[in-house]
Design goal:
The protein is of the alpha/beta class. The protein has helices at about 10-25, 35-45, 65-80, 85, 110-115, 140-145, 160-170, 205-210, 230-240, 260-265, 290-295, 295-300, and strands at about 90, 95-100, 130, 150-155, 180, 195-200, 245-255, 270-275, 285. The chain folds into 2 domains: about 10-85, no CATH class; about 100-300, Vaccinia Virus protein VP39 (Rossmann fold), CATH 3.40.50.150. The strands form 2 sheets. Strands 5-4-3-6-7-9-8 form a 7-stranded mixed sheet. It has a two-stranded antiparallel ribbon with strand order 1-2. The longest helix has 16 residues, at about 65-80. The chain is elongated. The model has no long low-confidence stretch (mean pLDDT about 95).
Length: about 300
């Protein structure tokens, strides 16, 4: 696929940048430009660190390394497979996570909140945390490191996603206080309450699904689309959250571009829309008292 004169790491990164631009690839699964994407793929494919000294970029590749790398580059360019899937790994909150096409690639702005221990939004340090619609488990596992005394539940409808989440629990050595539950929303947790519920549910509306770049076609549809306005599951979460939060608990939900639909559907509700220094939008916060106050309203507007 590539020019036989490509010998070094630097050669392959330079070639990949040019071809990525030519192919008009989409970058949004961990990088936002062709250079970072090429560097991540080339170095990751050869199990080399991102921070490698510049002099090492002039090292020549063995024939088998070239063949392996060129096949990954072909799949990235021709098949539009995201780099994280090609490498089987993505980074979130400074930690590596196992990922494949059973789960979405971690990219939530909620990671910034976790790094700040959700300050100043929590009334107290949470003892029980729920990561609802967990996918790879990245949000809940990162929360477990941010709150080392907390018990964390990872819940998802997909058994396949939970298999990946369980791999990540083991990889990070958290089996004693992080566990997974197969659940359609809150259905498998009828009497459980949490100090913090964090959710990155499927929320993409029908219009945005139709406009998505080809790279998103490799992600599980179950984790992306959720009805005409993207809020089929969010409606249920809002209607039931009060029954699963402790007295001073907090609900945080990402809805992305469907923020506009949330505002239209619930104009009476004073959502706190969180802001991010590192980029991202469409994440709201409600205190348990607000969830209780508006529970009848939320229930009345379920599908």
């Amino acid at each position: 696929m590539t020019d036989s004169r490509l010998r070094t790491l630097r050669d392959h990164i330079r070639w990949a940048v040019s071809r990525f631009h030519d192919a008009d690839l989409f970058f949004g699964h961990g990088t936002d430009n062709a250079w970072d994407e090429a560097r991540q793929l080339v170095l990751g494919a050869l199990h080399l660190p991102w921070e490698i000294a510049d002099s090492y970029l002039d090292c020549r590749l063995e024939a088998d390394e070239q063949a392996h790398l060129q096949e990954l580059l072909r799949r990235r360019i021709e098949d539009r497979v995201p780099t994280a899937y090609l490498l089987g790994e993505a980074w979130f909150c400074g930690m590596p996570f196992v990922v494949d096409e059973r789960v979405l690639i971690p990219r939530s702005p909620i990671g910034e909140l976790i790094g700040q221990q959700f300050e100043p939004w929590l009334a107290h340090s949470p003892q029980r945390i729920l990561d609802l619609c967990t996918g790879s488990g990245c949000i809940g596992i990162a929360c477990a490191f941010s709150f080392p005394e907390a018990e964390v539940v990872l819940a998802d409808l997909s058994f396949e996603a939970l298999d990946v989440a369980n791999e990540n629990i083991l990889q990070h050595g958290l089996e004693e206080r992080v566990y997974s539950v197969q659940s359609d929303g809150f259905n498998s947790m009828p009497k459980q309450r949490f100090d913090l519920i964090v959710s990155n549910p499927p929320y993409v509306d029908a219009e945005d699904v139709d406009d998505m770049p080809a790279e998103y076609g490799h992600e599980p549809a179950l984790g992306l689309a959720c009805g005409e306005d993207g809020l089929d599951l969010v409606r249920r979460i809002l209607a039931q959250a009060a029954d699963h939060l402790t007295e001073r608990g907090t609900l945080i939900v990402e809805v992305g571009n469907s923020q506009v639909h949330v505002r239209e559907l619930y104009p009476e509700v004073d959502f706190t829309w969180l802001e991010f220094e590192q980029g991202g939008h469409g994440v709201f916060l409600l205190a348990a008292a607000q969830c209780r106050e508006h529970q009848a309203l939320f229930a009345s507007r379920q599908l």
